[in-house]
Structure formats: structure tokens, C-alpha cells
Amino acid sequence: MSQFYTPKRKKNIFDPKSKVPFNLSRSKIDFFMNCPRCFYIDRRLGVGQPSGPPFSLNKAVDELLKKEFDIHRIEGNKHPLIERYGLDCVPFQHENMGKWRDNFSGVQYHHKKTNFIVTGAIDDLWINGDGQLHLVDYKATSNTKEITLDEDWKIIYKRQVEIYQWLLRRNGFDVSDLAYFVYCNGSTDREAFDAKLEFDVKILPYEGSDDWIEQTIIDAHDCLMQNELPDSGPECDFCAYTSALNDLGI
User: Fold this and answer.
1) What are 204's strand-pairing partners?
2) Distance in angstroms (rounded) separating the CA atoms of residues 1 and 228
3) pLDDT tens by residue, 190-234
4) What is this structure's pTM?
5) Where do the structural domains in the chain lie, given as residue ranges?
6) Closest listed residue to residue 87, CA positions, set 191, 179, 188
């Protein structure tokens, strides 16, 4: 790679010579795990993958759930869904909840070994009777099948909450390995739309582990420090597509 290469993007470019801490979001860690080459091209060379359309309905569900759980957070009592599942939890009240939920700030930790500011924006936190925090993530879908966490692709969701658990622990909080997904499944068996969607809502528990995160962050840093393109991820659709174009001489 030419040392005179000029990044296409002007912001969020990793400079190996810089002493300024570099922001590394939860989603970019997952991006690295999926494909080191695409991660490098994005964060080092300034060329990101084409973005898809925003998930506006999912965002609406997230925002409404936050408002709903915030009512019980202020009152210090259980949400009816928590009651229904018999959980010894209430929404956690903290002055930084707004900051932790914001995509432009989130929960942050300065990983000094790599000089990364690792960030992640959470959906919610519940606290149990022993004073431990449970990471809570909201998900919305519409599926006629029973909702589970068993599909292979949902490893993305699992890694997501594990990074949040890691971040909160690095900020001094006592965080349980047990996380909860509040899963909202849009019903399609109603007789008519009637200008509203109805959801079946359930809580799915997940026992997380953050053992993999420290080394992954170091590996991501090593990836960005090198001056050659790393290998593609074995299941990267973008790299497979560009490779096919190259084979066709396009």
C-alpha cells in the first residue's frame, strides 16, 4: 500500500502515528470480527461499506419501550412484563442513563493498551435485589415462528450485550452475566391493520461472557497498525462480491 494514500473520508480515520485516543464503537468491533479487511478499509483507509436503509420501525419500538420502562424507573417499581416473568428486578435509576443510551456518547472506557475509547450505546439496565445490574436489550421483529436466540446469526446480538457488560464493568459496576432481551414480535394474524401494529412481547434470558473482548480489541488495534490489507473474513459478502467482479475483469 502506498504511504501517500489519501483517505476518502475525513473523519474517524485511524492514524498509527497519532497519540490522540481513537473511538472504537461496539458495532465496529463486531465489524472487525466479521471481516478484518473491510474493517481496515473503513477505519484506516476511509472507505465504508454502503449503508442500508434505516430501521425506522425498530427505532420507534426502542424509543417507546424506553419511555415505558422509564415510568417505572422513576417510580422505582417493576414493569408488568418483569412481574409476569417473576424477575427480582426493577429498572435501574442513574443520572447517566441518557448519556449511556445516546449513540454519540454511550458507555465509554479508555483502553490504554491500544489507546482506544471503546463505546457502546445501551437500551436499558435493570437492577436485582442483590444490587447487581442486568444488561437489557430491546429487539423488534415480525416472525410467525417462535422467537429464540438459537439462530447462528444472532451471535451478533449476543456479542453486543457482552461488550456492554464489559464496558459497564470497566466503569466499576457490578454486572451479572445474565442479560435479558426484550423481544417484540409484530403480529400478522390480526383481521386488519387498523392503523396500528400489535406485538407479542417476551423476555429471553442470555448468559453472557466477556472473556473474548480484551484480546479482540488488541487484535483490532494490531490490524489497524499494519500497512498491508489484512485477509477477508470467510463469510464476508462484500469481499466475495468484489472478488467476483475482479475475476470478471470489471
Assistant:
1) 181
2) 6
3) 877 877 888 899 999 999 999 999 999 999 999 999 999 999 999
4) 0.91
5) 61-92+118-212
6) 179
